[in-house]
Amino acid sequence: MLHKKNLLWLTLVVAGSAQAQGDQRLSDLQVTANRLPQSQSDVLASTTVIDRDDIERSQAGSIIDLLQGRAGIEIAQNGSPGTTSSLFMRGTESDHSLVLVDGVRVNSATSGGASLEMLPLEAIERIEIVRGPRAAAYGADAIGGVIQVFTRHGTDTGTQGGLKASAGSDSTQRQSAWVATGDDDTRLNASLFHRDGDGFNATQADDSGERDGFEREGAQLGLSHRINDDVDVSVNALRQNFEGEYDNCSFPASQDCVTKGYLQSFGGQLDVQLQPDWQMQITAGHFDEQREERYDGERQSLTETHRDEVGLQHRFTRDNGVDVLGVDYRHDNIDFNNRAGESYQKDSRENYGIYGMMQRNYGAHELSGSLRYDDDSLFGDKATGNAAYAYQLTQNQRLGVSYGTAFKAPSLSDMYGTYNPNPDLDAEESKSLEAFWAFSQGDWKTRVTAFQNRIEDMIVYTGVSPNGTYRNIDEARIRGLELSGGWHGERLVTQLSVTFQDPEVRSWSDDYAGISAGDRLLNRSEHYARLDTDYKINNEWSIGSTLWAFSERTSYGGQEVGGYGVVDLRTSWQVTPMVELSAKMENAFDKEYQLVDGYNTQDRYVEGGVTLRF
């Protein structure tokens, strides 16, 4: 077994050396890193862009499958599709990564994390990932990085659309429809989607043989209009209803657990060209999340979170760069009730922020810097910053270094919820340093990034339920190295990511059982990798595969979860210009593995589908 593991890692590293590139083909333009449209070559942060072609080529079943194992990203999920997931970006906590949908925050106001498992791939046009602290642009929550999801839209005049249906193992079914129409000035797009399945038994402790099924359905709508040459306006909406079964939901543990509810986000944007070198942008957004929990058929709790946000930004274009000034406001509110009649001691918060950013090019030298000031109604004020420098070593090579600070205010649930809260928690603060080397030539691109992040007063749940509580670890340190690479040709597309990291507790001033200096942070692997390869045999047939490999990790209760490697296979046949047939086999070798101790994962899974485009 050890020999096989070493051989697997050797294969991945050799592949990386042969194909080095950013783990995703980088588009010419991205907006997430600094909250403004920029050429990818002008962005000094470590980024990944996944577009619609990448999504369809991968045949990923969920956004979790799409993101898992990419540079700096690992995800744990407690059972079958639709169950709770946790995202760890560069070894940070799941609530240390900010997630946006069309610019609107979708992190929960209670837990602080985002329900990635509920975001539908059918409605996604593009995903931008920025690794490293971005608090100077976005404020709280962006310690590990930012993931922004852009919903689908049409770019060509006239009408385009499509229908897709597929069926797979565990009685899984998917249906989706998408249409976009309009002219050069006005564009309207909409999508509908549905997915359900019997799933699989979530926990090993449940020996009844029952399956934990899931269902989700929703819609997405977008409208954009150019009023004149200087004014553009757009609005977007996304709604998803969900219901999922899971296990181990109460104390003592019950295996008959159901969560149901919805997620919805609404966003609007107005862009005004005030002068040739001066642009103003006004944004507004609203987010709702509702979750109802039922144990053994009885409602236990109903939680609703609501968020409103507005922003104003001014951009000033210079001969050799850009300056940005902006202000924003955010208000969170929670409605909660449970069987015991408990409620949050405090159920709302608001935040005001002001920020500025500059970027300059001086020949082979490039500089960028940003500062932000936040005033939180629960924690007072925080100042964060980011500075970066890059040098164009040759026409194809670039070296760079950056430093950034960030913070994460404890969530309302951590401090004032009903599950052993701790109102004395301090805000988490981080200081991060990274250096990179990037190479780009034609279809071949490469990036190697070394990083270190020190997080003070890191919040973790310590102890054993129901007697545990949330506490501040004095300091955690995460060091790592990311290799991302690949080739994007006419027929062959390959992307590789390899991450080495050391996420550990550095100091701990309390003798509370279960935490000590030198321990690895829970549910993090020390090294992991992903290799995607797709080959177009001719104009009709294509084949592809994804290989995931993760080293062992420490799960809750100190239990070690073994490392694993999983292979997915896929193929597609373009029968006519309008009709495509596809098939995939996930976990092709039926590997038994775990993401979280005590929870099952997907056995071999087979799915076939048909897509109609017009």
Task: Tell me what you see in this structure.
With 614 residues, the chain is mainly β. The protein has five helices and 33 strands. The protein has helices at residues 2-19, 52-58, 63-67, 135-138, 412-416, and strands at 29-30, 38-39, 46-51, 73-77, 85-89, 97-101, 104-105, 124-131, 145-151, 158-168, 172-182, 186-200, 212-228, 231-246, 257-275, 278-295, 298-318, 321-338, 348-362, 365-376, 380-392, 397-408, 428-441, 444-462, 469-488, 492-507, 527-536, 541-550, 553-554, 560-561, 564-574, 579-586, 605-613. The strands form five sheets. It has a 22-stranded antiparallel β-barrel. A hairpin with a 2-residue loop joins β6 (97-101) and β7 (104-105). It is globular and about 65 Å long. 44% of the residues are buried. Residues 1-27 have low confidence and may be disordered.
